[in-house]
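As a warm-up, study this chain.
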Amino acid sequence: MSVARVTEITSSSKKSFQDAIEKGIARASKTLKNVEGAWIQDQKIVVAGGNISAYRVNMKVTFILAE
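Now compare it with the structure written out below.
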């Protein structure tokens, strides 16, 4: 039987929401073992001088706990 845990993270990118998601999952995978999936909870942009300066995502990452 597997037991999973969910942790919430925020990731940011200057390029796109997709890039923020990919960076967040890559970073989470360095710390968390057995990452199985993620749920994108929120997407936000940061505006500076009338232009988008950053894309941010809040996600819940699911990983399987080791036996």
